[in-house]
Amino acid sequence: MPIADSVILGRDVVVHQPDLVNLYGCRLGDETRVGPFVEIQADVVIGARCKISSHSFLCSGVTLEDEVFVGHGVMFTNDLMPRATTPNGQPKAAGDWTCLPTHVARRASIGSNATILAGVNIGAEALVAAGAVVTRDVPAGAIVAGNPARVIGDARERERSQAAGKGPR
Description:
single chain, mainly beta, six-stranded parallel beta sheet, 28% strand, globular
C-alpha cells in the first residue's frame, strides 16, 4: 500500500520511488518532495515546498508548515506514554490513548536521525541538529543540538554571517 487513495497530493508533488513509501490519510502541499522508505500517517499535514528525506517517519498529529526540511531517518512521536496494552492487559485501541499534536513552523530544518517527541512546537526558521532529541519547544530561529536538545545558537544570525562570507559554509 504505498500511496493510498486517501492521500491528498498538491500540485507537482514528487514522491521518489512511490512503491517504497507508505502514505495514507495525509495531505502534501504543492511542490513537496518525499524520498523513499518514508511513512506518513493519517492526519499529517505537510505544507508547500517541503522536503522529506528517506527513512523518515511522520506519525498522526504532525503538521509541517511550508518549506520545512526533514533530514534522513527523522522520527516523530505522538504519545508520551506508549503502551501496547491497557492497565488490565487488553490491547490498546484508538480510544485508549491521546495523540499529542506536533507543529513545525515555516522554513524550519530538522537534521538526520533527530527524534521529535510528541506535543513539541518547532519555531519558524529553527534548525534541529542531526541526532538531536527534541523534548521541548524550540524557539523561532534557534539552533538546538544534543540529548535533550538545547539552544546553542541562532540560525538566522548564522545564515546572515554565511551570506556575508564571514562564517563556515
